[in-house]
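Duplicate of earlier report; (African queen) hypothetical protein input re-posted below.
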Amino acid sequence: MNEDINVTFIIPPECRNENECSEEMQLAFTACEQHSGGGIKAQWQAQTTWKKFVGLTKKDVFVVSEFQGEFFERLRLVGPRCISCCLTEGISIPSGPEPVFTIAMRGLVVTASGLSKQQKENIKKKVHWMGGLYSTVLTEDTTHLVADTVLSDKYVKAVERNLPVMQDTWIEAVWESSLRLNINAASSDFDNHKLPPFANLQVTTTGITKKDKALVMKLVSENGGTFSGAFQSETTDIVVLNKDSIGSEKYKAALEYGKACVLPSWVIDSAARGVALPLSKYRVAGASTSSPLSEHRAPDMSLNFSRITNLRPPSNFVDESRAVDISTMSSRMKVSI
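Output:
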């Protein structure tokens, strides 16, 4: 470092002096002192007496114990663990526009799919707080996708590029761990937060053997999905069948409502790989190609409809075990997207 970095440790209002600050703040200050003369000048300053909010440069670094409150909002800050880790590992202190509390996501570029606006905002905030970058689009630089659906273009692209697809619980787990330990968000320790291959999918079958049906039920249930014995246009996402079952009632209903029809091997192979594989190699000949999993198109918006249990099967409900006649489907019940 050619120029000194001024590192100011802020004493919160509830503490009378630095001795009452958290152990982590004091350890971080000690780490800075060990580098005094090497480009770092550290000092303690009470929050209640600090008045300088203008004229600051990238050489002015503030360390606070909590990322909240008026003081936090007015300054760009780093956390004590961020300081300690940077000094221990001999890497530069972050100087970007966002506050950085830890460096658990340093070097990562994260995007999200299928989540609410509020969830995405929280992910963006936490990623920045952990030294990572957040993007609204999936690019060549993207390293991780956070999603709650396998029915999106981002998911398909992520699988094609072998990018990890994580649940939003990954963000919180890494955040909580990084407050206590010097960890890397890309570590295999967080593999249990990967998005299951059939996450939030409802799957049904038609015309396959009892043995194959039992296997499909088991794999779907164990890997984040839900198995249903009946087809219902508002909730069914995938119909699993053999090539000689294309005359079944469920198959006809799937065609009418644009649902994906695939071979049982799609379920088996996807479960083995740990991701929902593209459907192009598993699609039953003549079946719908509207699924984003096969053709990279926008997801069927009916996947987001509320799932309502009816006392009486609606007209767009097919349960072959009850010999429901497909002719009862009324055109006025058809979902129009």
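The longest helix spans residues 117-129.

Merging into the original ticket.
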